[in-house]
Structure formats: C-alpha cells, structure tokens
Design goal:
Number of domains: 1
CATH topology: Rossmann fold
Strand content: 5-15%
Oligomer: single chain
Radius of gyration: 17 Å
CATH superfamily: NAD(P)-binding Rossmann-like Domain
Largest sheet: 5 strands, parallel
Structural class: alpha/beta
Strand order of the largest sheet: 1-2-3-4-9
CATH architecture: 3-Layer(aba) Sandwich
CATH class: Alpha Beta
Length: 235
C-alpha cells in the first residue's frame, strides 16, 4: 500500500491505521515530478494507493493557481499514469472534499451534482475525474480537521459541515478501503456543526467571526450525507 501525503494531518492518522504502508515524504515522492513518480511505481508496484497529497489552502489557491493545479490535478495524473503502466489493477483511492459543492444548501449526497465555488475546489473536482481513469477507483469526500488546538484566534459561526477529526476519518477510510469499495462515497460525521462549534470541541478558547469578515469565495454549508454508508460519530 502507498499513502501519498502521509505526513500531513490526515496522513499521519492514516499511517496509524495502516502501519505497514509506504508513506514517503515529498523528497522521495513529489507527485508533481512525473519521472520520480514513475520510478517509484516501477520499483514498489503498490496494489493499493491512497492519494491524500494536495494543496488545500483556499487563499493560496486563488493567488497561485498554477502551483495548485500542478499538485491537485497534474499530481493526480502522474500517479494515475504510473499506476496504469505498472499496476493497472490497483485500487486507487482519491481523497476529495465536501467543497466540490457550491455550499448554498448543504446535505449533499453522492448523487448531487458538484459546483465548485473556488479554485481549490475546482482542482479537487478535476482530480476526481482523473482518478476515474483507474478502473478500480474509489473517490472519498469528507471534511475534517486535526485533533489539536484550533490554529486560529477565531472560527466561523456561519460555516457548517459534517466534520470529523482526522483520526475518526482515518478509521472510516480504513473501513471503506478494506471493504474494497469503488466509485464514490461520502465519509461523514453524524452532526451538523459550525466551525466555531468544531473549534470548541478541540478545547480551544476561540472567538467568533462570520464569512462577511473575509474576502474569499468560501462554501457556507458543506454538510454531506451518504446513500452508501452510515455516518460516523465525531469523537
């Protein structure tokens, strides 16, 4: 098994669920380097690939579209090209986001049509279509944060999601991967929470803010439901 982005917040949690997985750092496997990716796949030939590596900062994505595209779209394409050449029957698991939806109403299921609101979301949706080139693919959408103190002084009271902590999501990913699920699935929490409510769950003292206070095209309601699996409790 290969986990890309294995040293990020979600990747660190997922490595605990799959301790024998290959989880190279960027120096060893830079997904934007097609030659390096091909050489890695030729050597290791992973039968399962969980692709977490991504550029996720919405503000940075709006400012530096090319770099975001290179990681989220071209990086996924490099992995798919290498997998098709060396392990064409591999189970390719692509980590997407609830933000592929516009976020005006929430409770989006796998059957709803995406409509990205910002450039980051657009690149993640494009990555989904690249991942679909693998016959044995699984696309997972979710929204999560690390189980650690809130990293900002304030949190939105009017931005909502069916959030999970990274370790909760990692257990959900393990479950759907071990079931050999394919297609598209939403791995979601069982409660609608504002980001402020989520921040308070981390035990942090945070202030309140609203979306009107930032000049960014952020989704308002990222809540997801699944027609395929049960929701998970945010622990």
């Amino acid at each position: 098994m290969l986990i890309t982005g294995g040293h990020g917040k979600l990747g660190t949690a997922l490595r605990k669920e799959f301790p024998k997985a290959l989880a190279p750092g960027r120096e060893e496997l830079d997904v934007t380097n097609s030659e390096q990716v091909a050489a890695f796949f030729e050597k290791h030939r992973p039968k399962k690939i969980i692709h977490l590596a991504a550029a996720t900062n919405v503000r940075e994505a709006e400012k530096n579209k090319q770099a975001t595209f290179d990681v989220n779209v071209k990086g996924t394409e490099n992995l798919v090209n290498a997998a098709q050449k060396f392990v064409p029957d591999a189970h390719f698991v692509y980590m997407s986001t609830a933000c592929v939806f516009f976020g005006d109403r929430g409770n989006y299921s796998e059957e709803d049509i995406p409509q990205p609101k910002n450039y980051y979301s657009l690149t993640k949706l494009l990555g989904e279509y690249v991942a679909k080139r693998m016959p044995n693919h699984l696309i997972i959408r979710s929204n999560f944060v690390a189980r650690e103190p809130w990293p900002f002084p304030k949190a939105f009271t009017d931005r909502f999601g069916t959030y999970l902590f990274a370790d909760d999501l990692a257990r959900g990913i393990k479950e759907v991967v071990e079931k050999e699920m394919t297609g598209l699935v939403h791995v979601v929490g069982d409660k609608k929470l504002s980001m402020y409510e989520l921040a308070k769950l981390t035990g942090s003292e945070v202030g309140q803010m609203t979306l009107n206070e930032v000049d960014l095209p952020l989704t308002k309601d990222m809540t997801l439901v699944s027609v395929r699996i049960r929701p998970y409790k945010i622990s």
